[in-house]
Amino acid sequence: MNSARYGGLEAGGTKMICVVTDENGKWLDQRTLPTLSPEETIPQIVDFFKKNAITSLGIGSFGPLDLKEGSHTYGSLASTPKKGWKGYPLLEAFKSLEVPISLTTDVNGAALAEATKGAAKGLDSCLYITVGTGIGAGAVVNGTILEGFSHPEMGHVPVKPHENDTFEGHCPYHGTCAEGMAAGPAIQARWGKAGVELSEDDRVWQLEAYYLAQAIAAYTYILSPKKVILGGGVMKQKQLYSLVREELIRQLNGYVDIGDPDEYVVAPGLDEHAGIEGALLLAKQAEKMALS
Amino acid sequence: MNSARYGGLEAGGTKMICVVTDENGKWLDQRTLPTLSPEETIPQIVDFFKKNAITSLGIGSFGPLDLKEGSHTYGSLASTPKKGWKGYPLLEAFKSLEVPISLTTDVNGAALAEATKGAAKGLDSCLYITVGTGIGAGAVVNGTILEGFSHPEMGHVPVKPHENDTFEGHCPYHGTCAEGMAAGPAIQARWGKAGVELSEDDRVWQLEAYYLAQAIAAYTYILSPKKVILGGGVMKQKQLYSLVREELIRQLNGYVDIGDPDEYVVAPGLDEHAGIEGALLLAKQAEKMALS
Ligand SMILES: Nc1ncnc2c1ncn2[C@@H]1O[C@H](COP(=O)(O)OP(=O)(O)O)[C@@H](O)[C@H]1O
Ligand SMILES: Nc1ncnc2c1ncn2[C@@H]1O[C@H](COP(=O)(O)OP(=O)(O)O)[C@@H](O)[C@H]1O
Ligand SMILES: [Zn+2]
Ligand SMILES: [Zn+2]
């Protein structure tokens, strides 16, 4: 059968992006819905994919997700603060499509897409980080999405507070983890204004770079990724890219050789499309796994 | 040809362990040499493997190693403090054997061995950490050794100093990285005595557990390993295992579910043999890769 129809779903906390392609990746249909309650939103998505007679489905979703092998609640949303979604059995909800499904986190999907056709094209390893409402990251290692006992939660790595920073941190679990110190809401809480209003304040971005570099140093020591792709709302402050590179070089202090920093820490190659492209690649993988 | 002879070399800073097995893993010959200069030591190892007519070779070596794809100095030792070995072309030195060779770090080899026949047997992911003269770690991810642009350097993750700890850290590159705060020489430098003499001092091990748990929290967030195996000289202080587990639970603060901590953080299953067993598994992999 050579008439595959891949369904891709980028499930975000704000919106749901659904795309259907043919086996060559040509977009056949698409639909974007606001993320309301599961009861309102999911049936519409199921209908959309049914109407398009997809043959496999890939989902890159906001999280945290339960991806524990053998878990009774495998494929459901875990303790998300998103109202109505906590514990929602996401994977289960698409069973009625009766097609192979591959589910992972949005950032894992984005990492796969960037490694396949984006900024890390042709590389068998990369890291995709988003700095937005939270900090999340996904990785490709030896050509495959990195998962273990569940999906990584890289945004929560511990960081060392800067000696001039007295902010107690904004993560309800850890206070001063990377997300607690450097995600958008942490910037807002520390400085009393949203990042977009602080563009001109150099101290803000110097400190931001200090924490992001510290997280990237940890990722570098642990994963040795061939490329680090840095995206998300906060990275709209383009000056951050060079600040992060400088801080990273300073913190690594020559212990590992990351090569040209401009080639190591880069912006996404697929812009806003990494998520949905990742979901479509997952659909292809789901088909392959079902056949093998 | 069903008469493979696997050569395994565990290349350590103190000693070199060489073993030859048949294709079923039966040990046929072995030799252990002190690690003197490369010129004194390596020819003896080459002779040993030649005499045994090995058909492939696996090496798990101390490091850091240059394992960068396409590097002119691929397979050589990088900036090791071990006298005479800095820049030594380790892989090159065994070319005259004319057999397929697989080279990685000692800890990567140990992780592979623990995942294949040790404490993580049957799991497709694990982390092997040694806390000794340095802190090193190797990982298996999706059944394969984790490497990226080079091998990981997990011991150098940044850590947050404990509020009661004024020690400036012992890593020449980073001061207060995990290795700089918690490896054997850091204990010696902070307390003025070697760890073995401090067994009775609870403060020492409580603080040690604080730093080890912080490193393991970072590894957990980033890699989501199915098992964390903790070995090396410092872990001879057996009380550390439960202290590390308690600290880890405290620091994760419920954000990720590692299951039963006694099953998550464990001692090596292969004791001192993980290194050489890993090297022998690498020899098997080298054979397979040469055939494919
Ligand atoms: N131009 C900007 N400069 C700094 N911060 C920004 C900018 N635009 C958005 N942000 C911050 O990024 C966060 C939203 O991130 P985004 O990646 O767009 O969404 P999400 O993480 O929810 O998917 C908010 O905290 C917002 O303050
Ligand atoms: N019983 C012990 N208690 C505490 N520390 C120990 C003990 N035995 C060895 N060490 C420490 O472990 C380190 C050596 O680690 P080891 O794993 O044996 O060697 P290496 O890391 O050099 O391969 C030294 O710093 C030593 O002080
Ligand atoms: Zn956190
Ligand atoms: Zn260090």
Concise description?
Chains A, B: Its EC number is 2.7.1.4. Chains A, B: Keywords: Kinase, Magnesium, Metal-binding, Transferase, Zinc. Two copies of one chain form a homodimer. The first copy, chain A, is an alpha/beta fold and 292 residues long.
| Gross CATH architecture of the largest domain in chain A | 2-Layer Sandwich
Q: What kind of assembly state do the chains in view correspond to?
A: homodimer
The total number of structural domains of chain A is 2
User: Count of DSSP E strands of chain A?
Assistant: 10
Question: Beta-sheet strand percentage of chain A?
Answer: 15-25%
**Are any ligands bound, and if so which?**
adenosine-5'-diphosphate, zinc ion
State Rg of chain A.
19 Å
Which regions of chain A contain 5 or more consecutive residues with pLDDT less than 50? none
| Contiguous helical run count of chain A | 8
Largest protein interface, residues of each chain: A-B, 42 and 42 residues
Cα(first) to Cα(last) distance of chain A is 15 Å
Going across the major beta sheet of chain A, what is the strand order?
3-2-1-4-5
Query: Biggest β-sheet of chain A: count, sense, barrel?
Result: 5 strands, mixed
Protein name (chains A, B): fructokinase
Keywords (chains A, B): Kinase, Magnesium, Metal-binding, Transferase, Zinc
Catalytic activity (chains A, B): D-fructose + ATP = D-fructose 6-phosphate + ADP + H(+)
Enzyme class (chains A, B): transferase
